[in-house]
Amino acid sequence: MESKTVYFERPGRENTEEVLRIVGQRAGELGIKTVLVASTRGDTAVQAVETLKGLRVIVVTHSHGFREPNSQELTEENRQIVESKGGVILTATHLFAGISRAVRNKFNTYLIGDLTASTLKIFGEGMKVVVEIAVMAADAGLVRTDEEVIAIAGTGRGADIAVVLTPANSQNFFDLKVKEILCKPRL
Question: Which of 75, 114, 156, 170 is the least buried, fewest Cβ under 10 Å from its Cβ?
Fold first, then answer.
């Protein structure tokens, strides 16, 4: 099998439209029905549900209180748009944060979640995120661990990476398989 990887000269939101085009095309070629999209405020999520019609779009955002207590960055307007267009929203604790971040912040030491996240970042910020959201979605029962999905993330705002992968639950983290890197920034 032969497949093309697209490399963007710069990371960031200016790549979002092209990422979504690539994802739609490759999903059709592979018969993939589900796409995971990382989104903080929901702008990328809205673009995804509007562009990837016919695919099941699951938007993964972080937990309440991530930036400050009792707050959620995903705007209510974007949440309503995504849901009105058939998108599913998962709000959950980041896989590599949670208790690891609490220990790091309190005791100034790193745990395995921090090390795993930093290792994945060698391939770019988005590689950590696509792996993370796939596990979060599997743990929530929104994706199967025996079916390929496409996961989309970005560096900062927007989307600049997409991969085909088979998710895993967190307790089976090392069963996750990245099958194809469709696009990413050339860092």
Answer: 156
Give pTM, 2 decimals.
Answer: 0.91
Q: What percent of the chain shows pLDDT beyond 70?
A: 95
Tens-digit pLDDT profile for residues 112-126 = 888 898 899 999 999
Residue 184 lies in a domain: no
Which amino acid makes up residue 186? R
- Least Cα distance to 170 among 92, 59, 79 occurs for 92
Q: Give how far Cα 140 sits from Cα of 40, 143, 180, Å.
A: 18, 8, 24
Residue range of the domain that includes 162: 6-93+130-177
Average pLDDT, integer, range 20-31: 98
For the chain, what is the domain count?
Answer: 1
Structure tokens at 140: 């929530």
Tokens of 178: 């990245």
Looking at residue 43, its pLDDT comes to 96
Tokens of residue 181, six digits:
């890197």
